[in-house]
């Protein structure tokens, strides 16, 4: 084989190895961020855990373009239950469902949260005054607790969670780090079709520790 022909062949092979060819991108559904080894597509917004239930990633697709969401476009807040208390809430690893039953935005559908450019920063809007309201409900002194505690979303923003006070509770470290890991995985599972968005929202609100054990096979580290 002549030298120029060999170089051309090597160039083509390298291009296919790096990009998988233009046809893979052309056949990918809108919003897909990766093609899995079993031929399915993932809409995951994080690389960690992508295609983990589909034999790994075969090809990363075009980088996501951020989706700009107006606050009005998220829809109305839907509370999973009606709170029955606004004080004397029990502080623990799980939210007190009498005070914090969880809530989501009905405009953040599966199609929206699984779009390639969806970013939670576009809807993250919890003022300090609301965080202090949550702390007071749980008998805490309203203050800045640094990395030792986080006013966390019960139904996570990755799952269409609302910034409503009914969807917030004080969560100590390292519990909220473990819950973050679960939130990312649940988002991936919703976007790959392994669980419906509604089921994910209700399960993470009901008992995120039990859901963590079912998903990862081990108990979360909360202390």
Question: What can you see in these coordinates?
Answer:
33% of the residues lie in helices and 11% in strands. The protein is α+β, with helices and mostly antiparallel strands. It has two domains: 3-60, no CATH class; 71-216, no CATH class. The strands form three sheets. It has a three-stranded antiparallel sheet with strand order 2-1-3, with no helix packed on it. Strand 1 and strand 2 (41-42) form a beta hairpin. The model is unreliable at 4-24 (pLDDT under 50).
Note the gap between the termini.
65 Å
Strand content: 5-15%
- Main sheet, how many strands, which sense, barrel? 3 strands, antiparallel
DSSP strand count: 7
**H and E string:** HHEEEEEHHEEHHH
Shape assignment: globular
Number of domains: 2
Radius of gyration: 21 Å
| Largest sheet strand order | 2-1-3
Mean pLDDT: 83
Report low-confidence residues grouped into runs of 5 or more. Answer: 4-24
Alpha plus pi helix count: 7
| Helix share bin | 25-40%
Class by alpha and beta content: alpha+beta
